[in-house]
Amino acid sequence: MSTTATPGLRPATHPTVTDGGLETDLVFHAGVPLPFFAAFPLLDDEGGRALLRTYYRGYAEVALRAGVGLLLETPTWRANPDWGARLAVDAAALARTNRAAVAFLSDLGGDYAARLPAVTVSGVLGPRGDGYRTDGAVDPDEAADYHRPQLAAFAEAGADLADALTLTTAGEAVGVVRAARSVGLPVAVSFTLETDGRLPDGSLLADAVEEVDADGGPDFFLLNCAHPQHVLRALAEPGGWQARIRGLRCNASTASHAELDEAEQLDEGDLDVFAAGHDAIRSRLPWLTVLGGCCGTDVRHVARLWGVEPPG
Question: Phi, psi (5° rounding) for residue 93?
Fold first, then answer.
């Protein structure tokens, strides 16, 4: 799908809009129930696909207004075997869904390809377990075997890139990168952070990035599902590792993961605080290129980051 000569890599080097908090937006704003926070079942019928089209088109409009590239990320964060089993979706059906998700966004992205500097389609995968906590160290080889089928489906469908969001351990990140390389797919890794700026397993972000890079590393790193204030705490650890971070998908809320897990109402945060936090991060990481949002954010938050009026 990429309109560039280096598929999957342009978002790491050129300004690129990506989307916001897909699941929280659908649940709290559109009133769509998402069992186990899984959005991929929406691809199964035209009504669900129509909701997704409306959602993604909002961010495409932000990219048009900002005059920058667009990174379309599939709604497949939960489309792996453990979460699929909870939804009674078997391996064959998951593979079909992951391929269909790439095809869906490739088709949608084609509507904008001639009007934007680049459109890139990324297959999204999430952690095997919960994105807000960890059950301990993860064996990279085991993680590679686990995530390879989803990555293979993305590659078969022609994705430009794979993007692993909300990872909680370096071990799982290493496994994801190994699996992506084995199927010939460029890959980005995104860690999540607690309020103290550390990964949920207690690791320093600096150490996690360096551990993954020591094994070959992804094409670039992002951070997601943490407020800008939490990201700034992670950046207190100096070093060249910071140059490897090229994207942010921050939460709107300053609350901890535990507090967000218990929340019954959406915390959309303070737009001014959200934007100011990004300004502070960008002063530390001027090479950031990919900007979007995560839990609690919608097209208003992302448009604010790009200095344009939100559509609608």
Answer: -70, -35
> Model confidence at 8, in pLDDT bands (50, 70, 90)?
very low
Which domains does the chain carry? 10-305 (3.20.20.330)
User: Residue 279, exposed/middle/buried by CB under 10 A (0-12, 13-18, 19+)?
Assistant: exposed
**Phi, psi (rounded to 5 degrees) for 151:** -65, -40
Residue-level pLDDT at 187: 97
Q: Give the pLDDT band of residue 213 (cuts 50, 70, 90).
A: very high
Distance, CA of 259 to CA of 252 (rounded, Å): 13
The residue whose two tokens read 């448009």 is: 303
Hey, how many other C-beta atoms are within 10 angstroms of the C-beta on 137? 11
Q: Where are the beta strands (DSSP E) in the chain?
A: 16-17, 69-73, 119-125, 161-167, 187-191, 220-224, 245-250, 290-293
pLDDT digits (tens, 9 = 90+) for 124-149: 999 998 767 777 789 999 999 999 99
Structure confidence by residue, pLDDT tens digits, 51-75: 999 999 999 999 999 999 999 999 9
Annotated binding site for Zn(2+): 225, 294-295
Q: Which residues does the annotation place in the binding site?
A: 225, 294-295
